[in-house]
Amino acid sequence: MHLLDTLVQKAKQAPRTIVLPEGTEERTLKAADRVLTDGVAKIILIGEPDDIHNKANELGLKHLGGARIISPTQNPDKQKHADLLYELRKKKGMTPEDALKKVEDPLYLATLLIKSGEADGEVAGAQNTTGNVLRPALQIIKTKPGVRVVSGAFVLIMDEHLQDRYYGEEGVLVLADCAVMPNPTAEELAQIAVSSADTARAIVGMEPRIAMLSFSTKGSAKHEHVDKVVEATKLAHELAPDLQIDGELQVDAALDPKTGAQKAPGSTVAGKANVLVFPDLQSGNIGYKLAQRLGGATAVGPILQGIAHPVNDLSRGCSVEDVYHMIAITSLQASAAIQ
Fold first, then answer.
1. Are strands 151-157 and 298-305 parallel, antiparallel or unpaired?
2. d(CA 136, CA 130)
3. Where are the beta strands (DSSP E) in the chain?
4. What's the CA gap between 332 and 337, in Å, rounded?
5. CA atoms within 13 A on the CB side of 21
6. Contact 213, 279 (CB under 8 A)
7. Using CA atoms in the order 122, 123, 127, 133, what is the torsion angle rounded to 10 degrees?
8. For the range 80-85, what are the long-range contacts, defined as Cβ-Cβ under 8 Å and sequence gap of 24 or more?
9. Which string of b and e fits 4-18 if b means at least 16 CB within 10 Å?
10. Rounded to whole angstroms, how far apart are CA atoms 309 and 224?
């Protein structure tokens, strides 16, 4: 079974409540209808009920009656959510009046529903920029304890016709950070590694073997960029001593058993890595797109990491399938957080 099908089946076992603040967006509604039909998650749609019902009828959607619909302007809990926002942001200068107005913003309301325990996760971005999606999440939900960095991982699924060249976990790898942090420090890189381990466990269900990537393997080159990766590896070990993590490693040493044995003998990760942590956003973004375009791999994501409760950002060019699978992934992240 394709990994995406497996993720959907896992999400069905414990459906979580996912809020969709872009409640009248066509792809979002189609995905929500399918999610409810398949029992993948429970859905909250934010938008004016008449607009959502009219759009659903226009699209011929039959199962959105199973969704909870919340009007951002006529929300019966508007004052409660405004009071919560005011308490969270009053030290930053927010007034009660400001809060009452802000909760009419669907992206802020979505994160307040999560903060108040009414929803377990959020998926947005079909209409909004990454910055607009992340801003309320960081202000209201904030990052996990001990984590200061939000990063973006991709699950890379190799083409099934290339089984003789499978790497990672039967052709599946987690790659990070490919979406958020342009030039992380050693401390931030260590936190990205630990967050990526959580993603590997929660989404893919694999025990992470993390390679901290560089253009050097075990001192083969000397440079300040290499020093950063070496320091990040040390810090990641201190943050999570139970993790299998090694670095610095070149990507061939991380993935290929023969090369790994030659360049990093004795390593428990070299040649067997299933999580790749890139030293910066340039290399991460280029790396996953090369795997897509030249290697024919499927890249699922970005899956945002480090937020206390899952919030995931879609591309504005996303498909209905993308939204559907991201809802399933967000539900799995929420299940892992609850456990």
1. antiparallel
2. 11
3. 17-20, 42-46, 68-70, 121-124, 151-157, 172-176, 209-213, 244-249, 275-277, 298-305, 311-313
4. 9
5. 30
6. yes
7. 50
8. 80/116, 81/109, 81/112, 81/113, 81/116, 84/112, 84/115, 84/116, 85/112, 85/140
9. beebbebbeeebbbb
10. 35
- CB 312, CB 329: distance < 8 Å: yes
Kindly indicate the confidence band of residue 162, based on its pLDDT and cuts at 50, 70 and 90.
Answer: low
For tokens 């079974």, name the residue. 1
CB 188 within 8 A of CB 284: no
Q: Residue 30: pLDDT above 80? A: yes
- How far apart CA 223 and CA 210 sit, in angstroms, is 22
Q: Find the range with the poorest average confidence among 75-84, 139-148, 228-237.
A: 139-148
Q: How big is the CA angle at 68 (ends 67 and 71), to the nearest 5 degrees?
A: 130
User: For the residues of 72-132, what is the DSSP string, one character each?
Assistant: TTT-TTHHHHHHHHHHHHGGGT--HHHHHHHTTSHHHHHHHHHHTTS-SEEEE-SSS-HHH
pTM for this predicted structure: 0.88
Inter-residue contact 71 to 49 (CB < 8 Å): yes
Sign of the Cα pseudo-torsion (163, 166, 170, 171, in order): negative
